[in-house]
Fold Mov34/MPN/PAD-1 family protein.
Amino acid sequence: MLPIKKIIIPELLTKETVRALLSFHPSPFKNHEGILYWGGYDFNDTVIVATCVVPKATSGPQEVHTTPEANAEVISYLNKHGMTLIAQVHSHPKDLKRHSAGDDKFTFMPYDGYFSVVVPFYARKAMSPLTMCGFHMYHRGKFHVMPDNWTMQNVKMIPGYVDLRGNKNGLTHFK
């Protein structure tokens, strides 16, 4: 049985994730897969995503590759800021949100509770709702595809900004 683990991610970081994945496209009319890592804080049953880190990578229409040196830079950056590696996030063509055999074999540094997130349509359709993405959890030596109902219950997108002042433009005027 897989452990229950929740992912909390600010909505602003899902937008940055999409922006970063789109940056791998060589032009508006050519698609390439992209990759980045989510860093943050792991509290055993809950992880909080705090940043997106884009490694040096080479990409093509159906592939993306990083080097051990590029991945070491990611870990160094996260360690410097007191964070841990939470997930690998990469894009796929079409509506493909499941891992390929290469994804299972070449995912960087998986550990029990590590996530791999696949964003379909080369990230051109964003990440919302989150069930359009494929969430995979590494447990006991392999990745497990998490069903959409798991994603709806356990992956929470939270607002990055909330204004509770109640007035239309958020400003308070004094006379």
